[in-house]
Design brief:
There is one protein chain. This protein is mostly helical. The protein has one domain: Orthogonal Bundle (Arc Repressor Mutant). It is built from seven helices and two strands, in the order βααβααααα. The chain has a two-stranded antiparallel sheet. Helix 1 packs across helix 5 and helix 2 crosses helix 5.
């Protein structure tokens, strides 16, 4: 089982553009990875959508996941199991998009996200970044 493409709506694309400007992170796939992880950190499942609209952003799974695409897939499968979902390609693709939308919304709502340092501070075990010089 695998995911071939990651597709996001125009609204998500516009939010990613704002996040790129705000954070200085130039690649959508990197921002999407952050969004995905932020959403996975939430204990509740992402809210369902009646119909997931097709999008303006389209990237392959390997571009989204990069070198660690297998790890991201394993994280998604584990989360789907925990949330009581069947594991198949359709469910994985849907849950990925729901996690991405929720994570992007969280990141865009956080006005303090002004660079990689502020994203790192979102990590539960983040070191004191001022002590490390970041």
């Amino acid at each position: 089982m695998s995911i071939e493409h990651v597709r996001l709506t125009k609204q998500a694309k516009d939010q990613l553009i704002r996040l790129k400007r705000r954070t200085g992170i130039l690649n959508w796939n990197v921002l999407c990875r952050w969004a995905f992880c932020v959403s996975l950190a939430e204990p509740t499942p992402p809210p369902p959508m009646k119909k997931l609209p097709e999008g303006a952003v389209d990237m392959t799974w390997k571009v989204f996941g990069g070198t660690y695409h297998e790890i991201y897939l394993a994280l998604l499968k584990e989360r789907c199991k925990r949330d009581g979902h069947e594991i198949n390609d359709e469910v994985l693709a849907t849950q990925l998009r729901l996690h991405l939308y929720r994570g992007i919304n969280y990141l865009i709502a956080d006005r303090s996200s002004k660079g990689i340092t502020s994203l790192l501070k979102r990590l539960p075990m983040a070191p004191n970044l001022t002590e490390t010089g970041l």
